[in-house]
Write a structure and sequence with these properties.
Elements (H helix, E strand, L loop, with lengths): L3 H5 L2 E2 L6 E2 L8 E2 L10 E4 L2 E4 L7 E6 L13 E6 L13 H4 L12 H10 L4 E4 L8 H13 L3 E6 L5 H7 L5 E5 L5 H8 L4 H12 L3 E8 L7 H14 L5 E5 L14 H14 L4 E3 L10 E2 L6 E6 L2 E5 L1 E2 L2 E2 L8 E4 L2 E3 L1
Parallel strand pairs: 7-8, 8-9, 9-10, 10-11, 11-12, 12-13
Antiparallel strand pairs: 1-2, 2-3, 4-5, 6-7, 14-15, 15-16, 17-18, 19-20
Helix pairs in contact: 3-4, 8-9
């Protein structure tokens, strides 16, 4: 592919053919032959090249609830696309076999037209760019999203939120929904554990919401690491200040990658975090990977009715019409028709 968008976001780097990448908040300055922090962007002769572009290693349908997106067309499925590489190096990465792998520009290319055709053929409501950070193949994702819109499909990002404002602005006309990982509310955690910083993630969440993308946020609770009452309270209060209607997904940690010695998250700690979030003013808080937990359901803030019931990654009952509670008429924020966001 021609990396038009990728190179539109570059700036001169102060040397012959040296450029600064503008995809993510690392803003790597790359000399010819160098790759960025993500190991997925390379300077080739003064122009940036996305190594993972067009070469998905994951391409299959998923329930939309798995992203997780709970306020977006419940009960539908998305075609999930993922490549290799990431803009963070999280020690607890739950998809480390692909996200922490080194991408290359070797392998068969699946063109954007084929991805959209596969989504349509498999009865998907849309396409999700997920399992690793989609920012690293921005041109490929944008080409797919443009075609998806023409086909009446939803577009969604599962992202770590380390995008630059410029990259977000490129995506705004093409992106319907995003689930952003807010991994901690401690910048020291981000630096030590993720190889990143907290402020750009907060900026991205606020920017996406402000520009009309439907945003849901996920926090993986790691026992004894990022789950103190004080940190969770500060995170929830910040999120509620952006909007109390942003769904907050609390995700159970399981030992993996470089944190294999840390125990799994207890359900009691998920429930404690839910109480903290509710006290902070968040209206929609979910125990998203705790099958059977009532915290997976969506209740109406107006009358208390169960609006959406879920078991695991499946929606089992929906009591809304055109985004409204069928009992009291409460408007549930989200996307319940393609490209129509209610906030």
């Amino acid at each position: 592919m021609t990396f038009t968008l990728l190179n539109r976001l570059t700036t001169p780097g102060g040397g012959a053919d040296t450029v600064a990448c503008g995809l993510c908040a690392h803003r790597c300055t790359l000399r010819p032959g160098q790759t960025g922090f993500c190991a997925a962007i390379r300077n080739q002769g003064g122009a940036l090249h996305a190594l993972a572009d067009g070469r998905p290693v994951v391409l299959h349908p998923d329930p939309i609830e798995r992203k997780p997106l709970y306020h977006v067309m419940p009960g539908t499925k998305l075609l999930s696309l993922g490549t290799l590489g990431c803009t963070m190096t999280c020690d607890f990465c739950q998809n480390w076999r692909i996200a922490q792998a080194r991408p290359s520009d070797v392998g068969a290319i699946i063109p954007p037209e084929a991805v959209v055709a596969a989504a349509v053929a498999q009865g998907c409501a849309g396409i999700a760019f997920t399992y690793n950070e989609p920012t690293i193949y921005l041109d490929y994702a944008a080409a797919i999203m443009a075609l998806a819109q023409q086909a009446g499909l939803l577009t969604a990002f599962k992202t770590n939120g380390y995008l630059t404002p410029e990259a977000i602005d490129v995506l705004i006309p093409l992106l319907d929904a995003a689930n952003v990982d807010l991994k901690s509310f401690d910048d020291r955690f981000y630096q030590k554990v993720c190889g990143a910083r907290l402020p750009p993630v907060l900026d991205a969440i606020a920017h996406l919401h402000r520009r009309g993308v439907w945003v849901e946020v996920t926090t993986l609770l790691i026992p004894g690491v990022n789950d103190s009452d004080g940190e969770l309270r500060a995170l929830a209060e910040w999120l509620a200040a952006v909007s109390p209607d942003i769904p907050w997904h609390l995700w159970r940690f399981h030992p993996d990658y470089r944190m294999a010695e840390v125990p799994p998250t207890r359900l009691a700690d998920i429930e404690r975090a839910m109480q903290i979030g509710s006290a902070a003013g968040l209206r929609y808080i979910y125990a998203s990977n705790a099958p059977g937990d009532p915290g997976q359901h969506t209740s109406c803030p107006g009358c208390g009715a169960a609006l959406i019931e879920r078991v695991g990654n499946a929606t089992t009952a929906v009591q809304i019409e055109s985004g409204r509670c069928t009992r009291c008429g409460w408007v549930l924020p989200g996307i319940f028709a393609v490209h129509e966001v209610t906030q």
